[in-house]
């Protein structure tokens, strides 16, 4: 009798109208690191075949999540097979590694169309595009007076940012007691590695000042080289130390809680994210798929500003090749392509991150801004982001203390224009104005530092305390940490 009642109740529940609408993804903004590349210290940096495959696999994952006709979370109105270039906004700095990563990623999102992309001509013949119907989705190149054409070849990426106060702030790390203590404590460690690295780094360069580029050289070698000089020195413990010191070095150059301008890369990225998502809402998902390729320091700066280290200290480490973070605009209200569209009050933002290619590990949702929930109302998200976002050229110039170049023209042309406000009006409410293009887009892909040649060698009275991996946080989320912190 009990089983019959259970069956009846089950049937009734199937017939009853649903009380909650299914979630709809209105649009996304993806910030993506490039794939595997050759080492910075050798110059002429290029994307490798492995790197191209990493970002291609990531693009394939996001196709399966958002784009294809059988996707798990289809974006409202997005064409699934033949790309509509008006719906897709892809950008990268004018740099070969980042540009080629973007092109490889796009081939995963919109692979060759085959016969689906063929055209019948007036004479009755059919023509298919080359390379199996290769789809040519444009990549917008970010170029301005403040960018370097070979940003990924530079050992000091933020040197091209042109943000005066950020450069001063980052250089302050090199005269801090924390830096001096670490520099001296690691002197023997780096000198002991000379048999491995002396083809590139001499005795005077084998030190903590070059922590990232030394790690980068060794890391690339362990991936690609069948033989490495004095490889017996590269024990697992040594490799862990190399990564640990590189993470410490780069985190301190990209973010400082007491001096936020150091995180200018994350500030400008936040402005771009807000602008793109706001445009998605005001345009009712006319261009819902936004992707930008940039440098790891923008991840670090944004993580600091968004209080991600409160979740795990892993968020203070350099992200792996092909890592990506995603901002999803979602709604549970009734919505249809070309029909009804939700109000901003019915829209939320979900943040996801994956350390490494999304083709290998699925992105996980994480809370932002020190909160508990992984899904925030749009108005709350805008309010929190506007606490640190730099949304236009005038705001960037003011924050950086710059008055020449693009900032000179920006100052002379200002005059109460709504575009100079980081929280300007929107015809949908709770929105922001679109940022001025140029310097802002360029900065998103850069780290916050110029290298300084003079280093202070005095030993300070502080001792470096190594960070430990917050295993509980990553285990609970089910995702990999940002970078393996060393215990």
From TrEMBL:
Signal peptide: 1-22
Region described as Disordered: 408-427
Domain of life: Eukaryota
Alphabetical list of SUPFAM superfamilies matching this protein: Phosphoglycerate mutase-like
Gene Ontology molecular functions: phosphatase activity
Bilayer-crossing regions: 436-460
The keyword Signal appears for this protein: yes
Chain coiled-coil ranges: none
Designated name of the protein: Histidine phosphatase superfamily
Record family assignment: Belongs to the histidine acid phosphatase family.
Keywords: Membrane, Signal, Transmembrane, Transmembrane helix
Organism encoding this protein: Pseudomassariella vexata
Pfam families: His_Phos_2 (PF00328)
């Amino acid at each position: 009798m009990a089983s019959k009642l259970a069956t009846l109740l089950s049937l009734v529940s199937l017939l009853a109208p649903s009380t909650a609408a299914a979630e709809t993804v209105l649009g996304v903004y993806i910030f993506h690191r490039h794939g595997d590349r050759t080492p910075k210290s050798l110059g002429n940096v290029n994307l490798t075949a492995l790197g191209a495959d990493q970002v291609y696999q990531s693009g394939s994952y996001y196709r399966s999540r958002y784009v294809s006709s059988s996707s798990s979370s289809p974006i409202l109105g997005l064409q699934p097979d033949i790309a509509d270039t008006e719906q897709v906004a892809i950008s990268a700095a004018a740099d070969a590694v980042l540009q080629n990563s973007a092109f490889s990623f796009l081939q995963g999102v919109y692979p060759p169309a085959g016969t689906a992309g063929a055209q019948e001509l007036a004479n009755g013949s059919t023509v298919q595009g080359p390379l199996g119907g290769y789809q040519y989705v444009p990549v917008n190149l970010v170029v301005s007076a403040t960018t370097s054409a070979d940003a990924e070849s530079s050992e000091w990426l933020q040197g091209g940012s042109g943000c005066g106060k950020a450069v001063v702030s980052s250089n302050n790390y090199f005269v801090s007691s924390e830096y001096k203590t670490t520099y001296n404590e690691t002197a023997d460690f780096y000198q002991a590695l000379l048999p491995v690295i002396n083809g590139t780094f001499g005795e005077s360069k084998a030190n903590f000042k070059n922590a990232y580029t030394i790690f980068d050289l060794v890391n690339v070698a362990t991936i690609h080289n069948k033989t490495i000089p004095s490889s017996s020195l590269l024990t697992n413990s040594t490799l862990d130390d190399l990564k640990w010191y590189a993470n410490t070095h780069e985190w301190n150059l990209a973010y400082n809680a007491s001096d936020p301008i150091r995180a200018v890369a994350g500030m400008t990225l936040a402005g771009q994210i807000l602008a793109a998502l706001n445009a998605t809402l005001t345009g009712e998902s006319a261009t819902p798929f936004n992707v930008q390729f940039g440098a790891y320091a923008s991840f670090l700066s944004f993580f600091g500003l968004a209080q991600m280290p409160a979740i795990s200290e892993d968020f203070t480490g350099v992200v792996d090749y092909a890592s990506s973070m995603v901002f999803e605009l979602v709604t549970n209200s009734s919505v249809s392509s070309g029909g009804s569209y939700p109000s901003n009050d019915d829209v939320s933002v979900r943040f996801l991150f994956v350390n490494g290619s999304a083709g290998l590990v699925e992105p996980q949702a994480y809370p932002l801004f020190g909160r508990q929930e992984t899904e925030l109302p749009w108005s709350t998200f805008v309010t929190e982001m506007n606490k640190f976002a730099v949304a236009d050229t005038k705001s960037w110039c003011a924050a950086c203390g710059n008055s020449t170049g693009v900032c000179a023209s920006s100052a002379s042309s200002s005059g109460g224009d709504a575009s100079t406000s980081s929280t300007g009006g929107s015809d949908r409410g709770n929105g922001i104005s679109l940022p001025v293009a140029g310097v802002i887009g360029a900065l998103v892909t850069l780290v916050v530092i110029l290298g300084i040649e003079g280093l202070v060698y005095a030993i300070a009275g502080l001792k470096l305390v190594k960070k430990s991996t917050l295993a509980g946080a990553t285990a609970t989320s089910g995702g990999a940490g940002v970078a393996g912190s060393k215990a």
